[in-house]
Write a structure and sequence with these properties.
Elements lengths: L2 H4 L5 E4 L4 E10 L5 E7 L5 E5 L3 E4 L2 E4 L2 H29 L4 H55 L5 H34 L2 H8 L24 H12 L25
Parallel strand pairs: 1-6
Antiparallel strand pairs: 1-2, 2-3, 3-4, 5-6
Helix pairs in contact: 2-3, 2-4, 3-4
């Protein structure tokens, strides 16, 4: 086992939305030495064994990736490739009709694969719906804590400083939940739009825009061209816009690298 794989032992663990989970205290390995699970001390929640494939080291932290996210990424990759090959197969046959008989067996193979992926897509959508229900329950629980704190503050049982601390923490938890809920929505949209029809539309050549009236035809002075230097400056200004910042001051782009995670 490489030292690189052991490098996360003792590190703090967060989910990819920023919620603190615990601290890595050890690992469990297979008979061949490969890591199976990672033991994380979750405090009152006890020691939990998290699947190694769902953990990624980034800086001083180990980030835990939800299983639904990995499953959805895997499905999107496989279905996208399958659809591209089916489309390529159709184009080959359309260009050379003599290839039709040779392509038939390959077509059956990929259409069966597509049917299997459609079945997996239903399971993932069910998993996403289940996760959304869990997030709704967590949101209600967090809001109940905040509302109770507000009651104590209004009845002079709690200092304002304490109430503001509770509000800060609960707002942060709600933000993490909202981020996950938004990502689930984005994933569902990507899955729904990952079809052969949409792939064909995206590959179709764009229609030429209609010719607009010239300045001479409208008797208006021609607009002055933008100097190349100014045009480059505008382009640079757009590219250098700051990344979106969340309510707690953390750049949302910090975890964008996780979009490139590929399961083993």
């Amino acid at each position: 086992m490489s030292e690189e794989k052991l490098g996360f032992v003792g590190k703090q663990v967060k989910d990819i939305y920023g919620t603190y989970l615990g601290k890595v205290v050890g690992i469990i390995t297979e008979i061949d030495g490969e890591i199976e699970t990672v033991g994380v001390d979750c405090g009152f929640g006890g020691l939990k064994q998290l699947p190694y494939e769902q953990l990624v080291i980034q800086g001083d932290y180990v980030f835990f990736i939800p299983k639904w996210r990995l499953d959805a990424q895997r499905l999107l990759r496989q279905k996208s490739l399958t659809l591209k090959r089916i489309k390529a197969l159709q184009e080959i046959v359309a260009e050379d009709d003599s290839m039709k008989e040779d392509a038939e067996l390959v077509r059956i193979k990929y259409e069966k694969k597509l049917t299997d992926l459609d079945s997996g897509e239903k399971q993932i959508n069910e998993s996403l719906n289940s996760r959304l229900t869990e997030l709704d329950v967590e949101t209600r629980s967090i809001k109940a804590v905040l509302f109770d704190a507000k009651l104590q503050f209004r009845s002079n049982e709690m200092k304002e400083e304490t109430y503001q601390q509770i509000k800060l923490q609960t707002d942060e938890l709600i933000e993490h939940i909202d981020n996950e809920r938004t990502e689930i929505g984005n994933v569902r949209t990507k899955i729904a739009s990952n079809t052969l029809e949409n792939l064909a539309e995206a590959a179709a050549p764009a229609k030429a825009p209609k010719k607009e009236e010239t300045s001479a035809e409208t008797n208006q002075p021609a607009p002055e061209p933008i100097p190349a230097q100014e045009e480059a400056a505008v382009s640079t200004e757009e590219e250098e816009k700051p990344a979106a910042v969340s309510a707690n001051g953390t750049e949302q782009s910090e975890t964008s690298w996780l979009n490139q995670v590929i399961t083993k």
